[in-house]
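Look over this record as teaching material.
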Amino acid sequence: MCLPQEGQVLECSLINSIRVGAVPKDPKILSSFEAVGKTEADLEGCIICICSGTDLVNLSFMFMVAESPDTARKWIEGLRSVIHNFKANNVCPMTCLRKHWMRMCFLTNVNGKIPVRGITRTFASGKTEKGIFQALKDLGLPSGKNDEIEPSDFTFDIFYALTQKICPRTDIEELFKKINGNKTDYLTVDQLVSFLNENQRDPRLNEILFPFYDPKRAMQIIEKYERDEELKKKGRMSSDGFCRYLMSDENAPVFLDRLELYQDMDQPLAHYFISSSHNTYLTGRQFGGKSSVEMYRQVLLSGCRCVELDCWDGKGEDQEPIITHGKAMCTDILFKDVIQAIKETAFVTSDSPVILSFENHCSKLQQYKMAKYCEEIFGDLLLRQPLENYPMDPGHPLPSPNDLKRKILIKNKRLKPEVEQRQLEALKKHMEAGETNTPAIIMGEENEDDTENGEKEAEDKDLNSEVPSSLSEATSDKVTSSVCQSNTISSGKEAECNNSIKKVPDDEVTEISEATDATDISEASDQDNSKKGGDVAEDSEEALIAQYKYESATTNIHPYLSAMVNYAQPVKFQGFDVAEERNIHHNMSSFNESVGLGYLKTNAIEFVNYNKRQMSRIYPKGGRVDSSNYMPQIFWNAGCQMVSLNFQTP
């Protein structure tokens, strides 16, 4: 995609999203449009916003103006059809070189020629201009700093030769010499067959579906990639032909035909790996970082199917629930803005279900707002009730991804059915009486017995501590809180929430919290966002982290929100034997990486069997304040479905 100004070329595979842009408010921009006869009203629906970037944090936004809304719609549909292409993001080195060459051919100056300085910029990393000028000269091209090259003279073969001079593949050259014993400047058919079978072919492959290479197949490779006709006739391959073959799609490390969806998607949900994000809202560090609604868009567009929302009471007059890394000097974003962003991007790149992992610290009043936002914004996308063929009874398997296609599931603690039903009936009577302003305060304080399995979640208390020597030490001495509500029913006034904190007995805390680390470090959340998200002095940060005490998610759940929880219901983990005895497939538990690794060492078989039946979630330990990631493969090997990673870290 080539843009009108010199030097502006955007590769379509780097485009993350295409949106209808808002009409600009800048008077200078509006006046420039008025100069060409476009009023503010004429711009409605004509502006296209193109978001691009090499990662999910460092993004560029470019705006284009179409002649009409219809033209803008066609551009948006057309661009969406070519972006989010998995094959385009997994191309071979030779295709990458071809894309670089095409980009340079587009970057012509006003004379329609390729400036030499543009070529030097392309190869600038670690290379002196003098070496680049000499390579151009050796190829018979203009080599002066201010010279220009005719596009017709700058063919791909010339560009490839240039790259080999400036950035030679010495690794492939060494391999080439190793194969032929450094005795000749070519490979024979037998040498190539031996290399392909002994070094390149995966021995785990089925011999019928993926047969061994033979001389006939080796000759086909030589015919395709060898440029020297004399060598080709003799059945030999030069180092150049060998390099071209290794850099081709034919030598891709993955099966290119399997980059798109090809598996059976009718098995229970617990039989699939679910791409999961940890503290999705953060753009950087876990402490003192910035929260962004855009992160939810980018993460979902990248294919993630489980995002995390840390929900807290808003402090403003409007009492809007917010999402932030609770009291960790992070900025706030509005819950409703995140829900809107999720709706817009959840099913753009995939129809597989999306799970919203709530870390709920809100009062009942704001939980009710959260539930209403989910209901109103998501509409039919939200899975409100269990599917008819998949009742939430012991022994019944989870529905499949195909059964849950284009559905959003909420993962949040749930009340016991009888408690939930009783409170919903009280809520209905209250609403019918016309008292719509205070629906949350009609329920009294719940205790942990009111939530299913009495789930409590805790978190690493000390971010600087070493991993304890036993699981009991790792999970002991945690703090949890519950938000209390007034028992007043008839007053019609909003009652204040009295916070109570109680210590969870050591023998009851066996699950690490959904919340990420460093959450209750200071009262910094009461400050303005302008004072948050800035650079925190290292000594100050260490002191605050040392004081850290985690404030657990509330167990005082609003029944309206509770009723929205179905196939992703978090419960307190009480042991693999207890989970097996209960045999409740929609129950799931979370473990931080240290605790999860401990279970893999002591109960590996039980953990695997657990994951065959129900879902588990792994998330980073408390010490990863820098948003670093652990090695997920060890947990995937055990069948852990939701291995949550910090997507903001490449």
